[in-house]
Amino acid sequence: MQLYPLSWRVALSFLAVVTIAILAGAWFVLFPTPQFPAPIGPLGIGTRVYSWIDSSRAEPFTPNAGDHRAITVQIWFPTAAEGKVQRYIEQPAVLAAVAARLHIPPFLLGRLQSAPTHAIRNAPPKAGRYPVLINPTGFSGFHAANLFWIEALVSHGYVVVTVDQPGTAAAATLEDGRVLASADKTMFDRYMPLALSSSRDQTPVMNGVSLPGGIIPFLAADMSFVLDRLAVPDAIDDELAAILDLDRVGIFGMSLGGYIGPEACRTDRRFKACVAVDAGKTATTADTGLAQPLMIISRDADVMREERSKAGGWAEEEIEHTISSQRRLYENNAGDAYFVTMNGMYHVNWTDAPIWTPLVGWLGLAGPIDPYDGFSVTNTCTLSFFDRYLRGALSANICPERDPNVTRLEVRQARHP
Fold first, then answer.
1. How many domains would you assign to the chain?
2. Which long-range contacts (CB under 8 A, 24 or more apart) does 358-363 make?
3. Range of the domain at 185
């Protein structure tokens, strides 16, 4: 058979097809559909979304004096139903914010947007009375950014309420329908405990709204507002209200959520137990401790410096503040206290981000631990802690102490049992 040279048009067409194939293959590799870990408990998961207005408080993250605090929550609860699953990200504004954090165009994250969770949208709840866990998101996060954590807890019989807070969530909807992106980080940091520690003004003002103690006490007040609304009969559906055991309430969160949780526990005794992950603390909370049981999960300063060398962030003063305030809270806690050190983890390992795209690991944003191993240990520690203090499961071991991914497990008994 004789082969003839390709014409230039055919050659260019062939090259275009090859290029498209290569790019398509790269897209599948770099931006696959995330495979969220299967829930480890026996119960199915349902979910519903609610929006509430706190007319008693002004909104500090907008310049409009007439704006009030608008809180969106997603409630995840046990169900026995089957049906249409909840997609991971449904708001385009959230997808755009996630893409901006990764410095990529949003269309590349199409599979992230459409990825199926294990939750059934608007499912009927399974009859029973379940402890309630509040979960404030991290800065620029969204209400499903810790799906590995949420679904594991719900599958074991907890109701989890994830909270989008205006100014800190990736995209929060205000009462008039406007979508508010998270605040500029440099501006936001001026109201955080680290900045206040070197400032004479302990009551800064943001857009005319006074913030005694900075932004963390204000954000912690959102958690109390959420508890208030859960107790109001017409705030949620009657069948969902019937399964909430508001005498057994805990709170858990990482990053900014790890700041907010202990602060909420200090100011509101309705919270009975607290898990705080990889975050500093306000001076008042660190120095007085909590009356409630506490679990801190974090890593050593050298691991934070290692993360900084690979991916940036974690200024030395921030590392010192985070480590020292965590340690002070642990030492000063009046309730039982646990300090779990996981040195294979970087900050984003306590979110779903390591399974969004392999770029997260390649760029040094995730630690050396296998992401699913990190999820598993975090879930085991959190579940055993809440089982002990919200369900009275005193025989439960707190954390897999001999797990190779747990560097240290420290325990302090309550000062006043």
1. 1
2. 358/29, 358/30, 359/30, 359/102, 363/310, 363/311
3. 36-412
